[in-house]
Amino acid sequence: RKEFVDLYVNYVLNESIRKPFEDFMQGFLRGCPTQTWKIFLPAELQIALEGKTEVNWQLLEKNAVYRNYRSSDKIIRDFWTVFHKLPEEKKKMFLAFLSGSDRISPYNWRCFVLRIANPLLPDPDEYHPSAHICNLTFYLPR
């Protein structure tokens, strides 16, 4: 029984996926040569590939740039007050809405600039907030 279980486990976890894994590895190494990855420790490589899961929300606010708004405007102060009261999950959902991902590369975080813009609409009550992922602009009608 033990030999059967050992052989079965080996087949399921190793042999059955060998060819697809080798194909994947060949393609991956063509784009990302192993010499490049050897400079990283495993934890550093994981962060480089996945991004950081912890986000400094205060830094996001600090780096924010405003178009047709000022940081002292009531709508902006109210936005940040509500934002900082949100649970972590909702903040990450906002980040995904804004950037297309709920994570940011640790190397881009200090350069990550949120632009909050007033779209200058004729009747802002008829519109909802929107975002442009390409340039990280959050359109917030008054």
From TrEMBL:
The keyword Transferase applies. Keywords: Ligase, Transferase, Ubl conjugation pathway. It catalyses: S-ubiquitinyl-[E2 ubiquitin-conjugating enzyme]-L-cysteine + [acceptor protein]-L-lysine = [E2 ubiquitin-conjugating enzyme]-L-cysteine + N(6)-ubiquitinyl-[acceptor protein]-L-lysine. It comes from the Eukaryota. It comes from Oreotrochilus melanogaster. InterPro entries: E3A/B/C-like, HECT_dom, Hect_E3_ubiquitin_ligase. One of its GO terms (biological process) is protein polyubiquitination. The gene is Herc3_0. Residues 1-142 form the HECT domain. It is an enzyme of class 2 (transferase). The lineage of its organism: Eukaryota, Metazoa, Chordata, Craniata, Vertebrata. This is HECT-type E3 ubiquitin transferase.
